[in-house]
Amino acid sequence: MPRDLLADRNTLDGMSQLTRDTKEPASSSPPEDSIPAPSYSPTVYVEERFKKMKDVHPFAQLLNSEDLDDCDWVEHAAFDPIEAASREKLEYRLRTCGELCSGLFTSGYPTSSGSLGSVIKTRNFPSIDSSDADRKRVLLGHVIATKSSAKVVTDDAMDYPKDWQTKYQFTPSIGHNEDGETVCIHSLCIHPDFQGKGLGRILLKSYVQRIKDSGVAKRIALICRDKYVVFYEKAGFSKIGPSKCQYGGGNWVDMVMDFEGGMSDDDADF
Ligand SMILES: CC(C)(COP(=O)(O)OP(=O)(O)OC[C@H]1O[C@@H](n2cnc3c(N)ncnc32)[C@H](O)[C@@H]1OP(=O)(O)O)[C@@H](O)C(=O)NCCC(=O)NCCS
């Protein structure tokens, strides 16, 4: 497990046994995928949710073009069609700046049956078990990003040069800019079967830590819908205000995490 996930793992390991586990026979536990949140006290529900994440044994790794099929699949499973990046755009980003992209993976079954098994079945992965040396890593979610010279995400940063395979430029006016000081997150998503288990939070946390520690940028910027503002604020991002991006129909909010100090609303015009 990468070092940046160890703290979360230690926290999980330190958690007390669940009330359900200690007071009820195991056979009366609900199926893993149908834990009914409303019937639990908030404390027990949170513990159940974290127990499920722990069972998945997630690990983060850099992405590259070999992950294109998986990223394309997860992207289109998680996002509305109007928001999902096209396969061509994903390929551009993975090939030109895979070092800015992270995947959250698992490599085994959390239980003998359950949603991970169905994911593997759907994806036509070969049968795997703990003794199978050829077992595949399974993508649960990803962060896809590029760099930009602007301080917030722009439509130009969201786009990509259509001739990049024949005329690659290091600092194009659209797409990934090698000299840019802002990492622009274009996709953060978790496979729908695994949402609500804390994986999005842990993927974002590990990603932010890696980018910050690497020193490749002065800030991370993204655009999100209103409903996700609190999620990103809890991760350390600041709400700048309405974004000018028209991508996916517009109506986005600019969020920024500045590693060198805050930025004002005026900076969003940069
Ligand atoms: C957004 C996303 C990555 C979050 O990942 P996740 O694993 O489901 O989220 P987590 O379980 O880590 O939850 C983290 C927090 O986000 C909140 N959250 C998750 N999904 C949410 C939603 N749809 N609306 C509002 N808040 C949400 C949770 O309540 C949780 O808060 P808490 O810790 O205070 O309870 C995931 O839901 C997803 O892939 N969504 C579809 C793609 C998308 O829209 N991505 C956002 C692009 S801006």
Automatic annotation (TrEMBL):
Could you identify this protein by its name? Acyl-CoA N-acyltransferase
The residue ranges of the N-acetyltransferase domain are 174-260
**Skewed-composition ranges (Polar residues):** 13-31
| Segments of this protein annotated with the region Disordered | 1-41
Basic and acidic residues composition-biased segments: 1-11
Per UniProt, the keywords (alphabetical) are: Acyltransferase, Transferase
Q: Does the keyword Transmembrane helix apply?
A: no
The protein's matches in Pfam families, at most eight in alphabetical order, are given as:
Acetyltransf_10
What is the species of this protein? Ophiobolus disseminans
Top-rank taxon of the source lineage equals: Eukaryota
Q: Name one GO molecular function term.
A: aralkylamine N-acetyltransferase activity
GO cellular component terms, alphabetically, are: cytoplasm
